[in-house]
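A.,

Following up on our hallway conversation. Structure tokens first:
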């Protein structure tokens, strides 16, 4: 079972034939992987509604996914290992590039090391297009091949006034059983988490366009009084035809299993990663960032790191900024693109039910004993690096402290690293793009940080702790392949005083003129979605959920500059030119006071002591910190040396930082 056929449609030189170190030139393969799995197999039983998917003549459920492979042209020059780079919302790091300078820094490092890189579509509600990777999954059916129905809950937040918008912007939505608005519920809130105001059924409809020129649609919603960026909207309606979204995890499992363990598919098409002499890849690792970090947490928790034959797939896993959430794609009527945060989707499914920590522990609120890694025979060695924003937005303290604030130990096969000062979308520094003044969606009050995530800036290099990138690929590979232990975890912890409650954070934060810390952070309650929903997913019959007891959550302690404390901080925090924080707040007209999504913020230091005293800024000026330009360059060099010694930065990247400091205008004479 599993992968049946692998069809390669195209081969092309990658990065115009650029040579990646000893690996040499690489090629990019694209095609489609075709799968068929047995719904009766116990290893597939966890997939929600797999038993209700259409079957072929052999009783198997079929599905397919586009894939990308980048590998050495001469496989003998590779390292004989596979790195599965899981795409974020269909946007792959393995897209074609115009030249070598456009290659993502982490990808370039992986290729220099000789890895074969793989990615495949998993997001089952994506709209097919030539650029993104989206699979073809079946729709579940009720007995007698009747449409399955169930309630769907959506939340809307618009960046600008509008009369209509898609039910699921950029995604395939679930069609309503009826467009009669009296059979649905639409409410409005002034702030996230506040009481809802019902909107009368005659004040909205399923349509697009404008109230005067509306076009009926079962994929769009229209509000006659208009959607406002200063409000949140929630729709609950009866939908039909749920996609079997949990097949996402089977795509990753079965493609990885084929590439690791099979010489050819059922039609005799050879495995494209065969080594000279027919050897198969001897190691495999996986990488996921943001939502796909949550995806990997779920993949491991549900047991998909074993193939249908019980073989371990990924020896190592690197998760970048996944937070403590899990994805919950294995849900009837799932929309895995939506994540829970403070300013939106507060009590939606992505944060619904633990476990949040990798090790097995007992949840003091529910009494449930559980952990993401609970299968010693197949659990990988794992590294997770998390930005500061994830503590404010994605409840990240639950990785190291339970819901009552008691410490949770980190398992020996896990390392947790902290990117102090980083927002989710980037951090401001010498090697980051210019500031994005009002944030990605233009909704933030304070100057936002750079957009240095590869999804938004393909030329961005992941240097130091902001992305860890190539350095962590080296660390993970040495751990997996040679048994060299990685650096100790650098996560802030409650028992060391590095994690504090919101009130204490606000009291400790410096009084920077015009820059106030938030009054809110993302919370988490016990959420009851009904008896058919549990830690592994299922069907939500209680919408909205019933709220129970609240978890205690914490954020990293700020230092005298307002930058989060921590060992081996990223360059932007170790030799700072201003205060980087992992939070931002919404501006007036956009639900002011709520957090501003995934954005961080940056406030520069004054140049001189006189300047800071004149403005009332308590933070030392650049001049007081570094003396002159040479002093700043020396501070960057010292921080780079520390990060290289600690194995959080590659030597080549350290030289780039030092060169950038020398070329900067920091404290240079006018």
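Then the amino acids I'd put at each of the 670 positions:
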């Amino acid at each position: 079972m599993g992968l049946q056929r692998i069809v390669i449609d195209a081969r092309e030189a990658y990065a115009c034939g650029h040579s990646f170190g000893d690996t040499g030139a690489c090629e990019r393969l694209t095609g489609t992987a075709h799968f068929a799995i047995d719904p009766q197999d116990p290893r597939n039983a966890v997939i929600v509604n797999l038993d209700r998917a259409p079957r072929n003549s052999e009783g198997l459920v079929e599905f397919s996914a586009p894939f990308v492979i980048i590998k050495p042209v001469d496989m003998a020059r590779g390292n004989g290992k596979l790195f599965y780079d899981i795409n974020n919302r269909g946007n792959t790091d393995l897209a074609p590039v115009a030249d070598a300078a456009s290659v993502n820094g982490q990808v370039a490092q992986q290729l220099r090391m000789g890895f074969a890189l793989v990615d495949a579509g998993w997001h089952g509600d994506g709209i097919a297009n030539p650029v993104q990777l989206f699979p073809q999954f079946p729709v579940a059916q009720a007995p007698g091949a009747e449409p399955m129905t169930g309630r769907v809950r959506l939340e809307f937040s618009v960046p600008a006034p509008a009369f209509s918008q898609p039910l699921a912007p950029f995604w395939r939505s679930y069609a309503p059983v009826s467009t009669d608005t009296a059979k649905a519920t639409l409410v409005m809130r002034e702030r996230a988490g506040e009481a809802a105001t019902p909107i009368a059924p005659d004040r909205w409809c399923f349509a697009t366009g404008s109230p005067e020129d509306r076009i009926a649609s079962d994929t769009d919603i229209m509000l006659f009084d208009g959607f406002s960026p200063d409000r949140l909207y929630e729709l609950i309606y009866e939908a039909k035809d749920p996609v079997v979204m949990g097949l996402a995890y089977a795509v990753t499992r079965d493609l990885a299993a084929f590439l690791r363990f099979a010489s050819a598919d059922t039609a005799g098409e050879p495995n494209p990663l065969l080594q000279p002499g027919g050897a198969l890849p001897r190691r495999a690792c996986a990488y996921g960032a943001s939502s796909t970090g949550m995806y990997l947490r779920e993949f491991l928790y549900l047991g998909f790191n074993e193939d249908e034959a019980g073989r371990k797939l990924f020896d190592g896993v690197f998760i970048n900024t996944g937070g403590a959430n899990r994805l919950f794609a294995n849900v009837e009527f799932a929309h895995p693109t939506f994540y829970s945060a403070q300013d939106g989707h507060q009590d939606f499914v992505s944060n619904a039910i633990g476990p949040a920590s990798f090790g097995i522990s007992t949840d003091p609120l529910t009494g449930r004993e559980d952990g993401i890694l609970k299968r010693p025979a197949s659990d990988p060695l794992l590294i997770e690096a998390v930005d500061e924003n994830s503590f404010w937005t994605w409840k990240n303290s639950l990785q190291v402290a339970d819901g009552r604030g008691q410490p949770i130990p980190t398992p020996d096969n896990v390392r947790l690293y902290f990117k102090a000062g980083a927002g989710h979308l980037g951090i401001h520094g010498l090697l980051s793009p210019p500031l994005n003044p009002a944030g990605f969606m233009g909704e933030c009050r304070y100057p936002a940080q750079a957009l240095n995530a590869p999804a938004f800036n393909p030329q961005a290099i992941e240097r130091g702790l902001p992305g860890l990138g190539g350095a962590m690929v080296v660390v993970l590979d040495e751990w997996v392949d040679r048994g060299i232990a990685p650096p100790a975890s650098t996560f802030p912890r409650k028992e060391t005083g590095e994690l504090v409650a919101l009130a204490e954070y606000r009291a400790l934060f410096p009084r920077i003129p015009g820059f106030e810390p938030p009054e809110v952070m993302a919370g988490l309650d016990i959420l009851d979605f009904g008896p058919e929903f549990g830690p592994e997913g299922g069907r939500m019959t209680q919408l909205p959920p019933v709220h129970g007891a609240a978890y205690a959550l914490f954020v990293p302690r700020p230092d005298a500059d307002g930058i989060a404390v921590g060992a081996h901080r990223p360059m932007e925090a170790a030799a700072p030119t201003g205060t980087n924080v992992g939070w931002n707040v919404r501006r007036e007209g956009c639900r002011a006071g709520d957090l501003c999504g995934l954005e961080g913020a940056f406030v520069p230091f004054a140049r001189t002591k006189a300047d800071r005293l004149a403005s009332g800024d308590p933070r030392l000026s650049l001049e007081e910190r570094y003396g002159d330009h040479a002093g700043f360059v020396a501070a960057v060099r010292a921080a780079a040396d520390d990060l290289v010694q600690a194995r959080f930065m590659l030597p080549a990247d350290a030289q780039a930082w030092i060169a950038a400091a020398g070329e900067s205008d920091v404290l240079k004479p006018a």
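The radius of gyration is 25 Å. Curious whether your intuition agrees with the design.

B.
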